[in-house]
Design goal:
The protein is an alpha+beta fold. It is built from three helices and nine strands; from the N terminus they run αααβββββββββ. The longest helix is centred in the N-terminal third of the chain and has 20 residues.
């Protein structure tokens, strides 16, 4: 084995490691959901930020969503398919800068492991179209003790 082979192997290992750490795994596939769209259809219906968050698991900047400080009575729907996801009755001020809920509506949100960013988190996504919503943490209030930390761009609010 010469130096070139060793360097090539090291570069390949480094690239694979960086990809696994910095890019989220897309375990969700379009065919797994009730509502599916082509990439072009998603791009046409979403803003650039909405597309990056909902289809590529990016995160909006904290404190940028007007939904974070909205406490009116109503329902938060998936921006991708209009499925009701969260009730305003489960919303609370987590102080994180993102809309936070202690629970989702029954059968609305599914989860998967997210091993990006040097750790293990629980990703929340719409069960009907697979759109990335945010993450679920175990530091929320009673009665569930959970905090669904959700990107506001993934949601649409409908007043009661």
């Amino acid at each position: 084995m010469n130096r070139r082979n060793v360097l090539t192997a090291l570069a390949g290992t480094a690239a694979a490691t960086l990809t696994a750490v910095f890019l989220p795994a897309r375990a969700l596939r379009a065919g797994e959901f009730e509502i599916t769209r082509t990439d072009a259809e998603w791009r046409a219906m979403l803003s650039d930020l909405e597309y990056q968050v909902m289809r590529h698991e990016a995160t909006e900047r904290a404190g940028t969503s007007p939904l974070d400080k909205l406490y009116d009575a109503g329902t938060y729907l998936c921006r991708g398919c209009d499925l009701p996801l969260y009730s305003s009755a489960a919303k609370f001020d987590s102080g994180t800068g993102w809309p936070s809920f202690w629970d989702a509506l029954p059968g609305a949100v599914e989860t998967k492991e997210d091993r990006s960013l040097f750790g293990l988190r629980t990703e929340a996504h719409c069960r009907r179209c697979g759109s990335h919503l945010g993450h679920i943490f175990d530091d929320g209030p009673a009665p569930t003790g959970l905090r669904h930390c959700i990107n506001g761009v993934s949601l649409r609010f409908v007043a009661a």
